[in-house]
Amino acid sequence: MKKWWFIIIALVVLAGLFWIGYRLSDDSQKQNGIDKTPVVIDEEKNDSENGPAENGGNEQEEPEPDPEDKESSEDPSQEPGETDYNDYDNKKYAWYVLRKSDHSTPGTGAGMAELVKEYGGFYLGDTSKKVVYLTFDEGYEYGYTPKILDILRDNNVKAAFFITLPYLNKNPELVERMVNEGHIVGNHTVSHPSLPEVDNQKVIDEIEGLSKAFREKTGRDMKYLRPPKGEFSERTLKISSDLGYRNVFWSSAYDDWDVNKQKGADYAYKMVMDNTHNGNVILLHAVSQSNTEALDTIIKDLKAKGYRFGTLDEIN
Hints:
single chain, TIM Barrel, 10 helices, globular
């Protein structure tokens, strides 16, 4: 009987030792960093997706013109030259800048500034001097442009206005005034699409349709393009460059485009003044009541700080 009890006890001890050994082995694997949880790698993520949200919303998700204002370009242009634009990368970038609190030159998403520069575009002027450049986007008129033009005239400041075809057709007298008072009128396309999302011919028609109408009304040519929503690709940069345009982005901006969410003149003033730097290309939307109310003080105070207002034609 004692013999059988001894055998039973031995088997229990061996089973216990086996279980302890198994647990120690499993814990050792976890402590050594072995993790069998599946890992999903999203290769589609890029800086242009993450940057703006981390930087206070200076990307430009501006509203498109009202549906009744949308126009399609007629008499479509032909593609310039024999270039096959489908050979160029159509990865979509959404422009944004990384604000700095010390008034130094802001950066942007990885590789974006270099790509834009490769095709003649820019987002900065002369960073060695205290010079800034005022630019306004004009998707539609909300009643403030006459006042903006008055303020610019009274302060002897020239600016650039980027218009759409509906804006040109509905406000020819304002566009004529821009031209006559020495401002640059730039191309913001016919109907404000995301250019990387349309085909080659549509990109050309969106740019040239507005350019042709502007030439017929003013006798002037357009040479600067601001891509709608700040969205672009190497393909759209190449097409617009071949059409003779320089793409103009910005080095400071803020969420001023929603007419129902205006935060007041003090807020507009602070957003501009806090982010001013040498070579600053300032983007403002002319539909903003806050911008309009703050503009005169912004101009006077920047001049008092030693800044000069330059024009895009000065930027190499």
